[in-house]
Amino acid sequence: MSRFLAVLYGDYISQLEQILKENPTDNPYGYVIAPIRSGRVVYEDIKILFPDATLITRGASPEVVPQLTNRVGVFAVNSQDVNSAGLTLDDLRNLPVLPVDPVQHAGLVFALKTPGGGVSTPKLEIIFNRFDRVGWEFSTEQGTYLRSQDLMDDTGILVPAVDHLTGQQLAFENVLILFANHHFENLAGTILEIDLLDRTNQDGWLFRDGQQFPVRWSTLRGNLSLQSEDGKLITLKPGQTFIEVVSLQSTWDDEKKLLRFHSPGIPTLTPSITFTPTVTVTPTTTLTPTFVPTWTPSPQTTP
């Protein structure tokens, strides 16, 4: 299953306060950000791309915890509800706030002007598996891509993905697809790592303003940047960006604007037998048999 990691930057607390004035939350736990789920090793790589960030997870497995730094853990208030871990406004106000220099995020470039060389793409779809499908459709009125998803009912029917605080469909100025190497850290195939750091010239697609652009993404020195195929910096539209990270095995159908996610191979616990052929000796000399005459005894003579 896919999993989200939200990256919040700026004065988001005051924005949430304003949202709650207009749309009081009906979350039974009083959360404004939820659900928060357990940590994954790739979160550390993502956090490095955003200097001085604080990572918030609902715990993590013993193998993963040592790999996560600057982490704050939250706990579920209801052991019977997997979605009962989250953050309230008071929780957010009490979180440690580290100084952040915007210059450290200068790898990404934003501009209102649409880059040249795009192809009209008002819709695209991503199939992670038969119970996890995502659709994006460009709204000319809002200037954003609207997100839809299935109901895990195996029908493939997509419905609007809604923000439960505002009741509005999720909307993003940019949808960015990054192809990255996925591999498992353990033989059981339960800890998945994604190689995001110190990469260069990796494939991707950017969707903005209803158009599709091929991009090359890099994370050298922990700095995420996007370039066009000819090596020029490519700009994101000011606003919010949804990044879909998919495996190198994933396939893109440009005619249908359909991406199919394919998982990397799961390591086997028992190595398979490798067949080694036996060596067949081919003689280098041809032997000619020697003629041996048959001995016939002479007749016996009786004295």
Descriptive overview:
The chain has 303 residues and is mostly beta strands. It is built from 3 helices and 17 strands. Strands 4, 5, 6, 7, 8, 16 and 17 form a 7-stranded mixed sheet that branches. Strands 3, 9, 12, 13, 14 and 15 form a 6-stranded mixed sheet that branches. Strand 12 (202-208) and strand 13 (211-218) form a beta hairpin. Residues 274-303 have low confidence and may be disordered.
SSE layout and pairing:
Elements: H1 12-22, H2 42-48, E1 55-57, E2 71-73, H3 89-94, E3 119-120, E4 123-129, E5 132-139, E6 144-149, E7 159-160, E8 171-172, E9 174-180, E10 182-184, E11 192-194, E12 202-208, E13 211-218, E14 225-227, E15 241-247, E16 251-253, E17 258-260
Parallel strand pairs: 1-2, 4-17, 9-15
Antiparallel strand pairs: 3-13, 4-5, 5-6, 6-7, 6-8, 9-12, 10-11, 12-13, 13-14, 16-17
Key features?
17 strands; 6-stranded mixed beta sheet; globular; 7-stranded mixed beta sheet; mainly beta; disordered C terminus; 3 helices; 303 residues; YerB-like fold
Strand fraction: 25-35%
Largest sheet: 7 strands, mixed
* The first-level CATH class name of the largest domain: Alpha Beta
| Overall mean confidence score, pLDDT | 87
Determine the fraction of residues in helical runs and give it as a percent range.
under 10%
In total, how many domains does the architecture comprise?
2
State the distance separating the first and last CA atoms: 108 Å
Brief characterization of the structure:
This protein has 303 residues and is mainly beta.
